[in-house]
Amino acid sequence: MEIIQENEDRRGLFKAVEDGREAGVMTYTWAGSTKFIIDHTEVNPDFKGKGVGLQMVMKAVGYARANHLKIMPLCPFAKSVFDKNPDIADVLF
Fold it and tell me: Which InterPro entries match (predicted)?
């Protein structure tokens, strides 16, 4: 599965693609230049239970670490991933 990031001035997304099909999308909004808010995660029903959402959150964590950014997970799914994985708390805002 490939996770593709699309980033704009105010918003962005991480999109999961497998075999040319969109498996899921996670959107975020920039809150200044050093943090972004994950506001929505959606997984295609055909891909439920395959860890798609987790992979997108982890891609966002990697992006935040590489760019010295912080994440505010307002999306309930993303928040649950941060709650269950204290090893990624370094990027929490």
Answer: Acyl_CoA_acyltransferase, Gcn5-rel_NAT, GNAT_YJDJ
Q: Are 88 and 53 within 8 A, CB to CB?
A: no
Question: Quick check: pTM over 0.85?
Answer: yes
State pLDDT tens for residues 23-72.
999 999 999 999 999 999 999 999 999 999 999 999 999 999 999 999 99
> Token pair of 35, please?
């943090």
Domains, the chain, ordered by start: 2-91 (3.40.630.30)
Q: What is the DSSP string of 14-62?
A: EEEEETTEEEEEEEEEE-SSSEEEEEEEEE-GGGTTSSHHHHHHHHHHH
- Residues pairing with 6 in the sheet: 13
Contact present, 23 and 52 (Cβ < 8 Å): yes
